[in-house]
Design goal:
Blueprint lengths: L4 H11 L3 E5 L3 H13 L4 E5 L1 H7 L3 H10 L5 E8 L2 H9 L4 E4 L6 H17 L3 E6 L3 E2 L16 H11 L3 E4 L4 E2 L12 H10 L4 E3 L7 H9 L2 E6 L1 H14 L8 H22 L10
Parallel strand pairs: 1-2, 1-10, 2-3, 3-4, 4-5, 5-7, 6-8, 7-9, 9-10
Helix pairs in contact: 2-11, 5-6, 7-8, 10-11
The chain binds zinc ion (ZN).
Zinc ion (ZN) binds next to loops.
């Protein structure tokens, strides 16, 4: 069924698992993500970034909503990295059930102000809100916004931020980058910091830039209290690697011939994430 991010994440927080937020900007990929989530009986969050909304067109959200309503697993439709208030109003208007306001590049006070304003509007109409404090890195120009250097989230600041904004979940910077890591950059999570943050604030915590981190570190982060992990690059790489292979045959032209093997390849990767995050079977908790 269609539900909010808060409903999905509060259960994940209580039972210590993480829900994948898969970025969607293609209809075939969307169907594949729903299929694998239902096969695994796993709750899922569909993350759509403003650039992706622009690519698919806001009218696609109506179809996504309709499919979510008749799904066997809980689904939230989440506006990823909302940059300003106007975008949040667009998200509310077009049927999203969850929004992120990303004021992480702003000074603390300004981040609080915009996040509070978004919480006020979103809560009034039943949507949940994710905020972000600290900055997540970015690896290349195709990655989502971030900075060259990570600014780690301070636990006391996080507490003040959550109390003054009323956000339902918080994205924290503990050592991840958006995108695919270059060979020179070694992914390393500050699990000690994550533990401190989790001991300080009680709302669900979110990890962005989860592609490429070692599986054991990610699994440990889930045990320590990460409840939502954004996955974008990993599923898109799997999908398009397979597509390059399929398109090597110059005679193919039909999407219904080209896309299915690519979807299958993407589903394998998405399924591994669902297992790694301990989300498989968890739809029965709702
Ligand atoms: Zn992100």
């Amino acid at each position: 069924m269609l539900t909010t991010g808060k409903v999905i994440l509060d259960v994940a927080n209580e039972h210590r698992f993480a829900v994948p937020a898969f970025n969607i900007s293609d209809y075939a990929m969307f169907n594949g993500i729903i299929e694998i989530s239902e096969e695994k009986n796993a709750p899922v969050i569909l993350g759509i970034h403003p650039d992706e909304v622009q690519h698919v067109g806001v009218d696609m959200i109506a179809a996504v909503t309709q499919r979510a309503h008749r799904s066997t697993v809980p689904i939230a439709i989440h506006w990823d990295h909302g940059a300003n208030y106007d975008q949040i109003l667009t998200a509310i208007h077009s049927g999203f059930t969850s929004v992120m306001i990303d004021g992480s590049m702003l000074p603390f006070k300004e981040n609080v102000a915009i996040s509070k304003k978004v919480v006020h509007a979103a809560h009034a109409v039943g949507l949940s809100v994710e905020g972000e404090l600290g900055t997540i890195g970015m690896t290349d120009s195709q990655a989502e916004e971030g900075s060259d250097a990570i600014i780690y989230t301070d636990p006391e600041d996080a507490l003040a931020f959550v109390e003054s904004t009323g956000v339902d979940s918080l994205a924290v910077a503990i050592g991840t980058y958006h995108g695919i890591y270059p060979k020179t950059l070694k992914p390393e999570l500050r699990l000690d910091l994550l533990k401190q943050i989790k001991d300080t604030i009680s709302i669900p915590l979110v990890l962005h830039g989860g592609s490429n981190n070692p599986d054991d570190e990610v699994a440990e982060a889930v045990k320590l209290g990460i409840n939502k992990i954004n996955i974008s690059s990993d599923i898109k790489v799997a999908y398009h690697m397979k597509m390059r292979e399929v398109l090597a045959d110059q005679s193919v032209r039909e999407p219904l011939i080209i896309q299915p093997p690519c979807i299958e390849a993407m589903k394998v990767v998405a399924g591994q994430m669902i297992e790694l995050f301990d989300t498989a079977g968890k739809a029965s908790l709702y």
